[in-house]
Amino acid sequence: MESKTILFRTFDTLPEAQFVKDALEQNGVQSFIANEICAQLYPIFGSSVSGYRLMILEEEQDKAEEIYSGLQEI
Predict the structure, then answer these.
(1) Cβ-contact 24, 65 below 8 angstroms
(2) Domain boundaries, the chain
(3) How far is CA 29 from the centre of its chain?
(4) Which pLDDT tens digit goes with each residue over 15-74?
(5) Cβ partners under 8 Å of residue 17, min gap 6
(6) Are the beta carbons of 56 and 23 closer than 8 angstroms?
(7) For the sheet containing 52-57, what is the strand order?
(8) How far apart are alpha carbons 52 and 63 in whole angstroms?
(9) Which of the listed residues 15, 41, 63, 74 has the most CB atoms within 10 Å of its CB?
(10) pLDDT confidence of residue 69
(11) Are the beta carbons of 6 and 64 closer than 8 angstroms?
């Protein structure tokens, strides 16, 4: 079965997106920020319009939600 990449969350700032990405990866969930470079080079078309998009594999969504939920309690 082929893995499908889905949008997990959108963030207004890169540090916020990077923090969640790091937390997911430390807990075994693969992720990447889809438009990180574009948003930095062209801020008017990047973070101000669509935000920093954190992508994960669809089959890891439940685990990612659990991890993210734990971060919200901090």
Answers:
(1) no
(2) 5-72
(3) 11
(4) 999 999 999 999 999 999 987 766 666 656 544 557 889 999 999 999 999 999 999 876
(5) 9, 11, 33, 36, 51, 52, 54
(6) no
(7) 5-11, 52-57, 31-33
(8) 21
(9) 63
(10) 94
(11) no
Rounded Cα distance between 41 and 44, Å, is 9
Q: Which helix (H) or strand (E) holds 61?
A: helix 61-72
Q: What are phi and psi of 2, to 5 degrees?
A: -85, 135
Within 10 Å of residue 25's Cβ, how many Cβ atoms?
13
Report CA Rg, the chain. 12
pTM, two decimals, is 0.82
Identity of residue 43: P
How far is it, in rounded angstroms, from Cα 42 to Cα 6? 23
What pLDDT is attached to residue 40? Answer: 61
